[in-house]
């Protein structure tokens, strides 16, 4: 039996790797943006809604000049001065007392960094998608909102998703909408260029939400919580969410069908949290591991049950509950585990769904093409596809004369 896309460990490593690689010097880079912004105070404040674009909900600390240019004019790059190095952004100070945590000096740099900024939960918004759900009242018309974690450089993935499984459309009369959530990558000119790419995409498709924090592996929980905060204001009545990475293959038609016929008649107002269920695990204590979580970050040796973060489905109701619970739970860098903690605190359970294959898809024999569309027609989600594979598979499973005689799908 072959396994498509490898096992869980492989998934983990790939999933986080891309994001983890672009961490260096981000503070300087983020600060550069602030300075740039300060130089461009002439631009009108276009934020005319009650939800404050520049600060998320909590209109804190930001000087009003910053607010004015948080959505940049389309062609402002031409006027941008060269990046200048300044101290980190003023809106959330690092907690220097963390140096007094036991053996702080011996912790890897990214973990020290996590501890310094662990308390920071609000970052200015750089790009918004205010009408994504047609306004808070109309948001119940959105049946499935696809919430895709994407780092700024992953332009190719976003483009392919827009024309395949994440296409905004109606399926059997139910609306599917899409939003990419992003932080800021890299520093200096490269950071400016990547931000510009997202601005162009946002202008063309209106499907990007970006906040001014470093888009790193250990900031994924932050990204997730910022999204839930956004949802509370922009799409409070959305029925269901697919929360996933930008390298998954999701059969969104199947998802809508599955969510339309839930046994308990759930229309999004009851609890739902399904995916690849992971239980009886705890923090990895090996220092060499990318997933290393030392006792200084989490003392307990066990994690609550959770669904693997490659992709999972949840109801709008459960999303709102998780967000509420998160206010009183210290951030943990592993985003999917943190969601499990929020569920546990609310007394809710994550559930396994056979169609969510974040750890790969078993294929009966090596003689069969492991990418045969018949394997993918019936599933909900598989992790780790390259852009061309997503493009190909989406087109193949939607071919009207695709014939699956059953032999290929015997193992599903
Ligand atoms: C800063 O860190 C210290 C030591 O860990 C902690 O006691 C304190 O609550 C932290 N402050 C904030 C604002 O999180
Ligand atoms: C660390 O602890 C020492 C001793 O309690 C204290 O004097 C010092 O101010 C602390 N440092 C920080 C940055 O909180
Ligand atoms: C998270 O983002 C903030 C804001 O950019 C940054 O200061 C912090 O270092 C990041 N944390 C990690 C662990 O990358």
From TrEMBL:
UniProt key word Kinase? no
According to the UniProt entry, what is the EC number of this protein? 2.4.1.-
A Pfam match: Galactosyl_T
What is this enzyme's class at the first EC digit?
transferase
User: What's an example GO cellular component term for this entry?
Assistant: Golgi membrane
Which coarse location class applies to the principal site listed for this UniProt protein? Answer: Golgi
One GO BP: poly-N-acetyllactosamine biosynthetic process
InterPro entries referenced in this protein's UniProt entry, alphabetically: Glyco_trans_31 (IPR002659)
What transmembrane ranges does the database entry give?
25-44
Locations listed in the record: Golgi apparatus membrane
Coiled-coil regions listed in the entry = none
Q: Which UniProt keywords apply?
A: Glycoprotein, Glycosyltransferase, Golgi apparatus, Membrane, Signal-anchor, Transferase, Transmembrane, Transmembrane helix
State the family it belongs to: Belongs to the glycosyltransferase 31 family.
* Annotated protein name in UniProt: Hexosyltransferase
Q: What is the lineage of its organism?
A: Eukaryota, Metazoa, Chordata, Craniata, Vertebrata
